[in-house]
Amino acid sequence: MAVTVSPMRDVVATPVQRAFREALYAGAIALGLFVLFIGLRTDQNISNELILVQRWGLLALVVILTAAGRFLYVAYAQPFLASLKVTDVATGLLPESLATRFFRLSYLFAAIVIAVVLLVLAGSLDELLGPDLAGYARFLRALAIIYAVASVMFYFRSFIHAHFSALGVSALALYPVIVVLTLALYTGSVAGGFQGSLKWVDNFGIQILIYVMLAWGLNIVIGLAGLLDLGYVAFYAVGAYAYALLGTHFGLSFWILLPAAGCMAAFWGVMLGFPVLRLRGDYLAIVTLAFGEIIRLVLINWREVTNGSAGVSGIPKVSFFGLMSFNVSDPNYIGKVLNIATSSAYYKIFLYYLILLLCLLTAFVTIRLRRLPVGRAWEALREDEIACRSLGINTTTTKLTAFATGAMFGGFAGSFFAARQGFVSPESFVFLESAIVLAIVVLGGMGSLGGIAVAALVMIGGTEALRELDFLKRVFGPDFTPELYRMLLFGMAMVIVMLWKPRGFVGSREPTAFLKEQKAVSGSFTKEGHG
Amino acid sequence: MNVQASQSDFILQVEHLSMKFGGLVAIGDLSFQARRGEITALIGPNGAGKTTVFNCITGFYKPTEGMITLNKRDGSTYLLERLPNHEIPARANVARTFQNIRLFSGMTLLENLLVAQHNKLMKASGYTFLGLFGFPSYRQASAESIELARHWLEKADLVDRADDPAGDLPYGAQRRLEIARAMCTGPELLCLDEPAAGLNPRESAALNELLMDIKNSTSILLIEHDMSVVMQISDHVVVLEYGRKISDGNPQSVRTDPRVIAAYLGVDDEEVETVLTEVGDEDVIEQLDTGPDSAHGPGNSASMMAGPVSDTVEHADEGERVTVSKGASKAAQVDARAASVASKPAPAAKPAAKSSTAKAPKRTAAKAPAAKADSTSKGKQAAAKPASGKRGGRK
Ligand SMILES: Nc1ncnc2c1ncn2[C@@H]1O[C@H](COP(=O)(O)OP(=O)(O)OP(=O)(O)O)[C@@H](O)[C@H]1O
Ligand SMILES: [Mg+2]
User: Fold this and answer.
1) Do B273 and B314 have their domain in common?
2) B154 in a domain, yes or no?
3) Ligand of minimum distance to the alpha carbon of B301
4) Are residues B107 and B180 both part of a single domain?
5) Among A469, B51, B253, B254, which is least packed, fewest CB within 10 Å?
6) ipTM reported for the complex, 2 dp
């Protein structure tokens, strides 16, 4: 982004002139970069021959968009951002912040009106506007709702900030209820409410919470102890397979297998930790990465036990402490016990509360551990390992406990994952999963539970929301699958957040003890650790 | 009985300690003792191997040879060179600070002091399990640890800033905090590596007070360049030069020891040169013409990581001890001169100056019998003004 023109010329050029010049540069760079990536594409024709498809139109579009983007940025966005920092001569005040300008009360009313109108018309949108426009209208509706929620949060930001945990936990606890009630009102029937809630509770709720739990587990290893573990997914896999295999072969219940899977993962954490923890920094990262891959390859190749890449299926469902089951055929099926209609939503809602409980357990243990000597030793280890040794802390066992504790929560999450899917295969435990969990931890701010939860919500919720953008198919053609762009979204979010807040959403750290008053420690003092 | 008493009189006994890094002998056959309840100062020019001695005592380096014995108050004895690094503070109760301060900068002052009480708290928390469920025994231990932390914060005059991050403190306060943190481990021997470095006179005085206070309960081993601190508070001084002990005694006897004066107390390279030029030493005049190589002088080997290792390693096979040629051991020069007074024909130089060093002192000795007295008087003047010139140049 650095402006590469000399200051001499800067003085003469107006922003528009400069923007024009820079737009040309940007366009030229984009052309050079993309001419082979986008301009040409190899493909197969009908007789299976390799052919080159030329896409000059698309290339031109991308180049023009890049140039235009640069032009707008330099000509308007930069002066605008600069003007935000200049005080008004008359009043001596800084101009309104961007956020206050963005979240105006009048805009909020407009958004609410749009959302309500479109919600009321929901049934007849297709007839009114045709399928194309209806897609856009639904998108607009979603945007309006998001905007409304965001501005309400903005107006109450200090309140939210002060009561973040309490609000967050109650929102999470009420989420399925709210979803079912809203949808029941919307469709006019309780059954419809339950049926419609499937997607919201399962795809959004459970999915996000699994990642929250994984990220909180990894946070112990990376955020607190400062050990860069790139193979975290291995422990997730160990937990999932422990549950899947023991559950299918021995028919043990979830409540026995959950701790067993956690212990198993912790055991593997220690096994990996022993030889590896004398390594530091990059070396540790590479070895843990390799460990993750080894576990996956073992799962693929040890066919007699793991059934190879076909995976393990038929994993028993979790029961409600043995009192109620979620299998329709069982005599104590929840529908029969409580005398309600059969629906698959009950199980999902139950699973939602289960993972919520597991998440809260993780949070509780993490918060508690931080205030105990082990937790403080972890953080001290991240700050300065040599000083730790000079104070008599056994750094090896301390690192091992961090590794094992993190692995244990990974194992819990894994066994939950197996119970939820009913099927596990090595495909679910690729390196990408480790990378996503790591990205969530870094984005959220290492060490901060709240920040990490928000990061998981944004990242996983965001990628799930991409699935909802089906109408884009009408624009980009039927081959367009928005989900495939989720890594792009991840990357962009990472870049933006790292520029805007290099330490993640929550960069500061809460002290674990205080004499007079609790003050957050600014991120500029904390260290990330060296592995 | 008598032997018993004198045994436990010494808290620390270092015997024949050697530490080699490749061909570089950072410490050569060093023996000294530190008495219980005293402040023992370890001084010497830059690169003399003081920090290396500390690293050997606290287990960060495994000595090549030698024995380090720690006698605790309760009569138990530990051989420190055999203990793993982290057990030295935990079991032998030896705490240390670092030359380049090592605080947990992202943690508050209080947290820093609580981390120092790790082992005690770990036991109280039942190795985490009892603590996790909030057992009252742990809560009590935790409250006690906070009290201890407050006690040391008060001593270090930092209690107002207890809840600020350690990285936010000014330099002098960071030094005091590091000492407070080391004290929170409940040590019997406290090793301080240049605690007064970079402090202004007021902070330095406050530090002296703190150390005198600590001395009542804990023996102190102190590395210091600031002679005002050393002479004021230490009971016993050990002087190192090039890893060898060149003097050992009470501050008064050390400050008048000609070897020490030549090696350390204020006789700079130039001063030695002036002394020798006055006497008309050809070798020195020759050297002055070419100009001493500043990169290789002893004054420039600052940290334990960066030292003039490369140009000393290649002489490894020549002898047990390798020193740089220019501006080399001044104590050896004094020795050689003293020897020449006794017998006019130049004797073989001390083993300390075997290699390339040997040439210069021999000639000096032969030609300048008067140099000794001269440099001694110069040294005394320099020793009288407290902080020697060397220190200012370093930091
Ligand atoms: N780890 C190491 N590897 C190689 N050489 C080392 C190492 N540590 C110290 N040395 C060398 O040992 C010698 C003594 O170093 P040391 O740091 O003990 O000196 P010092 O007396 O503490 O000096 P200063 O007053 O500058 O702190 C130096 O020449 C140094 O380069
Ligand atoms: Mg040193």
Assistant:
1) yes
2) yes
3) 1
4) yes
5) B253
6) 0.78
Torsion angle of C-alpha atoms B47, B53, B54, B55, degrees rounded to 10: 90
Q: What region, left, alpha or beta, does residue B235 occupy, with left being phi > 0 and alpha being psi -120 to 50 degrees?
A: alpha
**Is B128's CB within 8 Å of A374's CB?**
yes
Q: Is residue B351 part of a domain?
A: no
Interface test with B, best of A390, A528, A530 (most B CBs within 10 A): A390
A379 interaction partners in chain B (CB closer than 8 Å): 104, 106-107, 111
Q: Does B245 touch chain A (CB under 8 A)?
A: no
User: What type of residue is A256?
Assistant: I
Identify all chain A residues contacting B108, using CB atoms and an 8 Å cutoff. Answer: 511, 513-514, 519, 521
Q: CATH code at B237?
A: 3.40.50.300
**Structural domain count, chain B:** 3
pLDDT along chain A (531 residues), means of 10: 49 76 92 87 84 86 92 86 74 70 82 83 72 77 86 84 85 85 78 76 88 93 89 92 88 85 91 80 85 90 85 80 69 67 78 91 91 90 90 89 92 91 88 90 86 89 77 70 75 82 80 79 74 53
Question: Does B110 contact chain A (CB < 8 Å)?
Answer: yes
Could you tell me if B191 and B81 lie in one domain? yes
Pocket of ligand 1 (CB under 6 A): B 21, 24, 26, 44, 46-52, 99, 301-302, 304, 307, 309
- Domain boundary residue, one of B129, B153, B186: B186
> What global pTM score does this model have?
0.79
Residues B88 and B214 in one domain: yes
Domain enclosing residue B273, as ranges: 269-343
Burial B320-351 (b: 16+ CB within 10 A, else e): ebbbbbbbbbbbbbbbbbebbeeeeebeebbe
Same domain? B89 vs B224: yes
**Nearest-Cα residue of chain A relative to residue B91:** A392
- What is the Cα–Cα distance from A525 to A522, expressed in whole angstroms? 6
Same domain for B203 and B86:
yes
Nearest CA to ligand 1 atom 12: B26
3-state SS track over A381-412: HHHCHHHHHHCCCCHHHHHHHHHHHHHHHHHH
> Is residue B146 a part of any domain in this protein?
yes
Same domain, B192 and B89: yes
Closest chain B residue to the Cα of A382, Cα to Cα: B104
The answer to the question of residue B365 being in a domain is: no
Other C-beta atoms within 10 Å of B202: how many?
9
Q: What is the CA radius of gyration of chain B?
A: 23
